[in-house]
Amino acid sequence: MSAPHGSIAAMTTERRRPPHTADERTMLESWLDFYRTTLVLKAEGLEDEQLRTASVPPSPLTLQGLVQHLAEVERAWFQRILLGKDVPSIYGRSGDGHDEGFALSEDTSFADARARWETEVAVARKNCAQHSLDDTVPYPFVPGDVVSLRWIYQHMIAEYARHCGHADLIRERLDGATGV
């Protein structure tokens, strides 16, 4: 089992590329951390108003909303599903019962949202360290089915990669910044 790939605080200044060769667990953890870092880098240097601006009409997505959503996703997969814990939603649930986090509240600043996300990432790392990639847990969306931690890691990498693409578009529309 490998150690975490840096603290979240360091992530805002350094994004490590995943190794080209490594054991499977290190690869999965590295790719997930790469996309986690990419997400926060997309928000760097922006004012709160920009982080709360939906800049790709007609989509209501904002950079803050993406950070909030991914805090919800971290909590769902690494606490509710992996550990079977009954933890509440952070930002509320949509009408269909899914955690969203996309909706913004005047009471939640980006700093608050990011701190909550950082906490969820830290908890996720701790929870994953207690399991092997082959450990399985009930898959709540298909009765009688199970998923492995390996599957959860791959799902989370895809989730982050998709939302980092959204963040690319939002950021480019906000101030023209591309890359990262």
Structural overview:
The protein is mainly alpha-helical and 180 residues long. The protein has a single domain (38-175), classed as Up-down Bundle (Four Helix Bundle (Hemerythrin (Met), subunit A)). Helix content is 52%, strand content 3%. The protein has six helices and two strands, in the order αααααββα. The chain has a two-stranded antiparallel ribbon. Strand 1 (136-138) and strand 2 (146-148) form a beta hairpin. Helix 2 packs parallel to helix 6 and helix 4 (63-81) runs antiparallel to helix 6 (149-175). The two termini are 28 Å apart. 32% of the residues are buried.
Number of helices: 6
Number of E strands: 2
- Can you say what the CATH homologous superfamily is? dinb family like domain
CATH architecture: Up-down Bundle
Alpha-beta content class:
mainly alpha
Largest sheet: 2 strands, antiparallel
Order of helices and strands: HHHHHEEH
Distance between the termini: 28 Å
Question: Which terms would index this structure?
Answer:
52% helix; 3% strand; two-stranded antiparallel sheet; disordered N terminus; 6 helices; 180 residues; Four Helix Bundle (Hemerythrin (Met), subunit A); single chain
SSE blueprint:
Elements: H1 8-11, H2 24-43, H3 48-51, H4 63-81, H5 110-129, E1 136-138, E2 146-148, H6 149-175
Antiparallel strand pairs: 1-2
Summary of the model, kept short:
The chain is 52% helix and 3% strand. With 180 residues, it is mainly alpha-helical.
